[in-house]
Amino acid sequence: MHAIKSLVLALALAGVAAPVLAQDAEPAQGPVSGGAPDALLRFDEAGYFAVYELGLAHGYWTAEATRADGVRVDLVLDAATGTLWATGGSGADAPLTAAAVRERLSAAGYRDIRDLELDDGFWEAEARNAAGRRVELIVHAWTGEVVHERVEGGPVAGALTATQIVERLTAAGYRNIRDLEFDDGVWEADAINPAGVRVELWIDPVSGEVLREERD
Q: Which domain holds residue 181?
């Protein structure tokens, strides 16, 4: 419980309400509805500690942490289901190999697949999609699902304006939005999130969805 106590203290210093914990509470399951504090609690209950670089990307909470045996791992937590994956496992618990990811992408219609790299619990790759466009892909390291595809170069059709992005972020509870810029196919900004924490944001240029959020 040492990590939980540290979390409660950190949240108190940040002005964020900490979750109420029962002494012998069962591990939380289901959707991660409580934001970053809930994600950190899930990691603690799973036996991980010294969690850092917590971020939310493509519907998954990601972080680096230490296992009970002292090994550093990357964690991926599905915000919708509460399913947790960690690098360093073996057999069915291990991430897909590069060869397996290439095979799945080929089956999904991608070709000329290159620059496969495992980073922060996701495979990244460049490929040509079924429409013949060169794209950058982010692939779930355990399921093989393509969680994000971005067309390389050129304008983004249907992209929202800076004013529209600010409106979307404000409606989602972000404030003090600043340093908004369009870079490498996405909108980026600094803001204070609904929990009162200063964060960096990466925003889908068409939908306005926050793709990734990291503490600034």
A: 162-211
